[in-house]
Hints:
CATH class: Alpha Beta
Family: Belongs to the NAD(P)-dependent epimerase/dehydratase family. dTDP-glucose dehydratase subfamily.
Protein name: dTDP-glucose 4,6-dehydratase
Cofactor: NAD(+)
Organism: Methylomonas paludis
Bound molecules: nicotinamide-adenine-dinucleotide, 2'deoxy-thymidine-5'-diphospho-alpha-D-glucose
Number of strands: 12
CATH topology: Rossmann fold
Amino acid sequence: MSILVTGGAGFIGSNFVLDWLALNDEPVINLDALTYAGNVQNLAALNGNEKHIFIKGDIGDSELVSSLLARHQPRAIVNFAAESHVDRSIYGPEDFIQTNIVGTFRLLEAVRGYWNTLPDEETRAKFRFLHVSTDEVYGSLSKDDPAFTENTRYEPNSPYSASKAASDHLVRAYHHTYGLPVLTTNCSNNYGPFHFPEKLIPLMIVNALAGKPLPVYGDGMQIRDWLYVKDHCSAIRRVLELGRVGETYNIGGWNEKPNIEIVNTVCTLLDELSGRADHKSYREQISYVTDRPGHDRRYAIDAGKIEKELNWKPDETFETGIRKTVQWYLDNQAWVENVQSGGYRDWVEKNYAERSL
Ligand code: NAD
Ligand code: DAU
């Protein structure tokens, strides 16, 4: 038996593949298009491991996906592959539509074709298609709203979240219409090793160490709900193993924090672990910049269902997870240098110009 993971060279996907192969004997077929966000270096620890079969390819390449499924006969698919960055979706939504919507559709079609060829009813019933999605599909909460549950109405606000919402609906439709045994997870903001330094936490660490400004969008009081990436991976494994077919599961760690608090925490940790030469705090580098267009004010996940039904809880608190993360970036500066891209940062700097509050 094996599982097929898509997007397994990205941030969460690579953590998932590394953890899976550390915990299981079951091989992983890893299909990743290696966009700017995909990095085989994340998987260097698996070099020479025969249980990791890496294929560079697109989830939208129906022929390739069908042939991989026929050859490897996986018992499950875990679909991480996506364009994942909200700012990029504002800059250029096309890739998000292509991969997140069209790509997911083609992947579902290929999987449906394969699933129909499985030898008997029992094998078909045991098969799983787990779609990894986001809390952003639920839209934005105000200060006093209760956290998102699995019954919260979808109200996506960015091209990214709209494309993920569309993919979630397709997955749901393939269950209701064709009986494909699907599971969907909607997770809050992840952080941890291999996080591409365009996202808030790694960007702040990397910019701080490089002596660059730490760009905080708007007033910095937007709230995100943070989960250490290894905890997201353990939740996905639990849903894959025990989740009820056709259900969705919210995943989160009950860690709501305003962005400015996150930035201050990163600065405090860096002050302790790798202080500035002039002994001033990295907080001096904080710079308030123009807000993200359509910026969602608050996300918060009610993780009660996965806790009660599947007995899942995160291992890390925010305090332990963020310390590990900052230390990981200090220990892996060569990785950071390799993934930084000039062109995109130029665009960000132009569009999020510094301003005074
Ligand atoms: P990422 O951008 O770091 O990685 C995405 C990976 O998918 C990359 O390796 C990329 O090469 C690959 N990919 C992109 N297009 C592809 C295609 N057409 N075919 C095959 N591979 C392709 O993203 P991430 O942060 O690891 O997120 C993974 C998944 O989890 C996404 O579906 C995202 O929506 C979801 N998610 C992310 C977070 C978060 O905080 N990062 C939270 C909740 C859900
Ligand atoms: O909520 C889950 C989502 O979390 C995932 O679905 C997305 O794939 C993932 O990228 C993440 O989206 P966000 O937009 O919340 O993440 P990002 O790190 O881009 O931004 C986090 C918050 O920090 C957000 O409110 C915007 C703000 N921000 C971000 C950057 C990059 C800044 O203030 N300054 C910045 O430079």
